[in-house]
Amino acid sequence: xxxxxxxxxxxxxxxxxxxxFASLGFIDTFMLxxxxxxxxxxxxxxxxxxxxxxxxxxxxxxxxTIFCAxxxxxxxxxxxxxxxxxxxxxxxxxxxxxxxxALVFKDQIAGxxxxxxxxxxxxxxxxxxxxxxxxVTSFSAIWGAGLRAIQKPKxxxxxxxxxxxxxxxxxxxxxxxxxxxxxxGLEGAAWGTLVAxxxxxxxxxxxxxxxxxxxxxxxxxFVAAKERTKNVAFVNIALPIIGGEIIWSGGMTAYHTIYxxxxxxxxxxxxxxxxxxxxxxxxxxxxxxxxxxxxxQKIGSNNHQELNAYIRAGLVASVTVGGTxxxxxxxGRDLLIGLFHGIEPEVLDAVYLLFPFILASIFLRxxxxxxxxxxxxxxxxxxxxxxxxxxxQWFGAIPLMLVLAFWFELPVQYVYAAVLLEETLKLIxxxxxxxxxxxxxxxxxxxxxxxxxxx
Length: 455
Fold this sequence. Notes:
Strand content: under 5%
Main location: membrane
Radius of gyration: 21 Å
Distance between the termini: 19 Å
GO molecular function, one term: xenobiotic transmembrane transporter activity
Number of helices: 16
Structural class: mainly alpha
Protein name: Multidrug resistance protein NorM
Largest sheet: none
GO cellular component, one term: plasma membrane
Order of helices and strands: HHHHHHHHHHHHHHHH
Membrane topology: Multi-pass membrane protein
């Protein structure tokens, strides 16, 4: 039972933080729905762009977590501190480059994702403001990775509660213009997110420097972080993760682009359901992240017997979490979808039609997320997961979606079914990979090389 207790201890605060983080998009969509379907669709485009760009930073943070978890398991605090500095340097450089590119090409990006000129113009304005969040996230994501690796995820949760409350309050004031504030509509939602994220990151900076010295900036760790061999080792793990995030999030953005070019109703329906899918899938991400930290620590400490137990517990937990979420959502579907009663009737009908497909996606991703991000990536097997995402999405789901949407001109629910095929196709190679144990790589300098672990 210990593996399940350990997973629960870490998964609950990580999942709650992920749910709250994802709920920002859901809350924005809910509040903006009062302004009509076009505004919701524009917000959906802008959110997808922000999410795509942010996933590069998430990839760098993921590599940081992998190294930090193994260093923590090996009790190698010096290397852990250096890894945090390496992650911060790479995240800062990447965020500046990505934000600059998004600002230069915002109009072209928005125009590519919809053929409606009015929606594209609103989305471009939203991107111009919201994309600045990535600059701030480049710092908070790395500190968050370090805190999870040393098993202190509650700090991130508490801090984000503050950010969420501030964000919702600012949205209320700036979207609708209450209490003398200007009514900025969609742009108000973007400003609310940016200000709240900046405030919470500043608080995290002061907390880390006051109470978690192992994660704070130091001159010695910064000098060591510039060492070529350490950066090469980091990049060898990070690049496939970043590549996988770009491939996967790029595929998700391509899905949204296809919906946007089917018709406005399909785009508006998916703009409502996508934040909901991300929000509820966050419970699964909490499970995956917790499993990843614990599996990484067992690899770092060369505790192969316990490693097998944590792998089994992680897979059981992923099925349990995914199944529970789907069951609860199906029971409460009318209440949940009824929150959007102010939207156009044809959009609401499309939401009801697509809802069962979203539930199937949530369950499948719960299993694949824990298997790939929680287990394989924690062992440093990042290239395999990158290649698998690329093949399943770009050689499977996306070509099939294009054929179904624009050749056969089928309704959006049939087009979305191709997404389910992508997740299903991943399961067989992932389970075979986990079983053969070739994915295990020891990254901590204080550990010996890990051999394949007996099944």
